Amino acid sequence: MQKVNIAEKLSRFSEHWSPKIIAELNGQEVRLAKFKGAFDWHSHANEDEMFLVVSGSFVMEFRDTSVELTEGEMIVVPRGVEHRPVAEEECSVMLFEPAGVVNTGDATDSELTNPAERI
Amino acid sequence: MQKVNIAEKLSRFSEHWSPKIIAELNGQEVRLAKFKGAFDWHSHANEDEMFLVVSGSFVMEFRDTSVELTEGEMIVVPRGVEHRPVAEEECSVMLFEPAGVVNTGDATDSELTNPAERI
Predict the structure, then answer these.
(1) Which CATH superfamily is domain A30-99 in?
(2) Is B71 left (phi over 0), alpha (psi -120 to 50) or beta?
(3) What letter does residue B42 receive in the DSSP assignment?
(4) pTM exceeds cut of 0.80
(5) Is A110 helix (H, G, I), strand (E, B) or coil?
(6) How many Å is the Cα radius of gyration of chain A?
(7) How far apart are CA A77 and CA A58, in angstroms?
């Protein structure tokens, strides 16, 4: 029975927009990612996604509004809703979503598509 | 599209062992709880449970071992595994688990059974 230290896991990688799986439960995955710059507009047809800021801040853009999130704040993006995270400075984020979600969703020609790797 | 501030949600309640739902996604719930003292031994037959320490620390006891968790650390307790959280001092915890989980699981005669309330 092993615990997971989030800071230790974050120290293992530096790439941006490259999600790392740190736990699995009930068919869901807990992932960490580092954001910097603007991601691609996309949505996930069948999966809700949760973003929790571990350090730093970023803006979740939607087509009709945007929400700034800082450390200790979270948001759930419902399935089907187009969104784009944008981080002026590097931001560390915990994600909670169904296993196997592709980070760029329906943006299938994105250069930011990265498979989630277990660390 | 609303964000959730974890500290603000924690400021809304003071009871121990009384989970509060702060988000739902993919049939799962994100809950906050304040631990103090020893909970009851129990397990959940069909649900894995994740505990992430927001502030303070607690010990997750298992029948054959125990794991101390402090701020920024998390653990997944697999379905069927008996466990008992114990907190010497008050500890604030975020939980991820399937919607509808009863906090005391199979400990059906526990006085600590509390329905999860949405805040």
Answers:
(1) Jelly Rolls (2.60.120.10)
(2) beta
(3) B
(4) yes
(5) coil
(6) 13
(7) 14
Domain B6-102 fold is Jelly Rolls (2.60.120)
Mean pLDDT by 10 residues, chain B (119 residues): 96 97 98 98 97 98 98 98 98 97 92 93
Bridge partner list, A37: A87
- Please say whether the beta carbons of B34 and B13 come within 8 A: yes
Contact of B46 with chain A, judged by CB distance below 8 Å, is answered with: no
Contact B76 A25 (CB under 8 A): yes
8 A C-beta contact, residue A85 and residue A60: yes
Q: What is the pLDDT of residues A73-103, one digit of tens each?
A: 999 999 999 999 999 999 999 999 999 999 9
- A7-49 tens-digit pLDDT: 999 999 999 999 999 999 999 999 999 999 999 999 999 999 9
Give contacts of A98 with chain B, Cβ < 8 Å: 26
